[in-house]
Amino acid sequence: MLIKNKNYRTVWMQDSFVYMINQQLLPHKFEIYKSKNYIQTANAIKTMIVRGAPAIGATGAFGIAQAALGFKGTNFEDFKEHIEKAEKILKSTRPTAHDLFYAIDFIKEKILKNSKIKNAKDDAVKYSNEYADWSAGLCRNIGEHGNRLIKNNQNILTHCNAGALACVDFGTALSPIRIAHYSKKNVFVYVDETRPRNQGSSLTAWELTQEKINHSIIADNAAGFFMKSKKIDFVIVGADRIAMNGDVANKIGTYSKAVIAKENSIPFYVAAPLSTFDIDAKSGNDIPIEERHEDELLYMHGIDENKIMRKIRIAPQESPAKNPAFDVTPAKYITGIITEKGVMKPTKEEIERFAANK
Fold first, then answer.
1. Which of 11, 126, 252, 310 is deepest in the core (most CB within 10 A)?
2. Where are the domains of the chain?
3. What residues form DSSP beta bridges with 249?
4. pLDDT per residue rounded down to tens, the chain (358 residues)
5. DSSP 293
């Protein structure tokens, strides 16, 4: 992604270190976080230094590579046990995003085929980097397919952040918008703030600013107003996990946007790689929904007039909060799913057909 006229990836590995853009500090400060081992990498995923389904998938793959490189013994069974311990810790960080599980399983299968620890370590580095490259390529393809759906002079609504920051590069929901912009189409993006963590107003708006794509931040509750007022032509969101019947788990608030879009006859698209599909989830009822700490809802973070980062409470001291991080949008509200293989209808038959070519 373009940041201050320089291209960065969200996450990458060099030697035994994993580097990632620290998303906790954006948009007020750009800083690279350096993780020294898989425990620190797992904590970076859990605390959302890095977030977004494809991005944490690649980060999880790098975490397994770090675990492999950090093993000091000579017995392969001990090595296998060490990798399985790292797998358990990394997978426990974020339960909803399927790419994390997909990526870790991919790397683990590759390295445990070896009988020599040195070969396993070499393969861990090789395949985790290949996975990240592959993931970035998928998102570029999503952009190419999605761009064909976007007409010149359209107004597009997004929810949460499904841009390059949520992936290794390009993004999912923002990838078609980027490609449309590069193709000289005039597009305007309405950016949901996406409470409680404000990934829309802090991250998506920041990415669009870097790329000089026209946009405005709107309150989450304003999306219906703009849709009913015929100000929005097209809605595109990302996904954290997709069930085999086409139900989609994404950031909390996605479901309500889909219902309102349907009511106003506005196309509602989901953009996600096939690695986001969970073959074990028959419907949205099988998708685990992460519950995050109530403080995310009770407090807000930002910079004051002296450019000092502050955390302030916005709710009564006595009030508790409930904070589901995701909701599930039933397939009937979704116009199509944009994947690296093309655009599919959210039906069991279409998903199985595309998944066969994963």
1. 11
2. 2-140, 143-355
3. 241, 328
4. 878 788 899 999 999 999 999 999 999 999 999 999 999 999 999 999 999 999 999 999 999 999 999 999 999 999 999 999 999 999 999 999 999 999 999 999 999 998 899 999 999 999 999 999 999 999 999 999 999 999 999 999 999 999 999 999 999 999 999 999 999 999 999 999 999 999 999 999 999 999 999 999 999 999 999 999 999 999 999 999 999 999 999 999 999 999 999 999 999 999 999 999 999 999 999 999 999 999 999 999 899 888 888 999 999 999 999 999 999 999 999 999 999 999 999 999 999 888 776 6
5. P
Check if the beta carbon of residue 124 is closer than 8 Å to that of residue 131. no
Q: Count other C-beta atoms under 10 Å from residue 317's C-beta.
A: 6
State which H helix or E strand residue 253 sits in.
Answer: none
**Residues marked as catalytic:** 240
pTM above 0.90, yes or no: yes
Superfamily of domain 143-355: Translation initiation factor eif-2b; domain 2 (3.40.50.10470)
Q: What is the spatial distance between Cα 332 and Cα 205, in angstroms, rounded to a whole number? A: 29
For the chain, helix (H) and strand (E) counts, in that order, are 12, 17
Tokens standing for residue 88 = 């358990």
Facing residues of 189 across strands? 156, 215
DSSP per-residue codes, 136-166: HHHHHHHHHHHHTTPPTTEEEEE-S--BGGG
* Sign of the four-CA dihedral 168, 173, 175, 178: negative
CATH topology of domain 2-140: Four Helix Bundle (Hemerythrin (Met), subunit A) (1.20.120)
Length of the chain: 358
Residue 173: C-alpha distances to residues 191, 230, 306, 308 (Å): 12, 21, 35, 32
Instruction: Give the dihedral of Cα atoms 309, 315, 319, 325; nearest 10 deg.
Output: -60
Q: Is 338 helix (H, G, I), strand (E, B) or coil?
A: strand
Distance of CA 246 to CAs 70, 95, 236, Å? Answer: 40, 19, 15
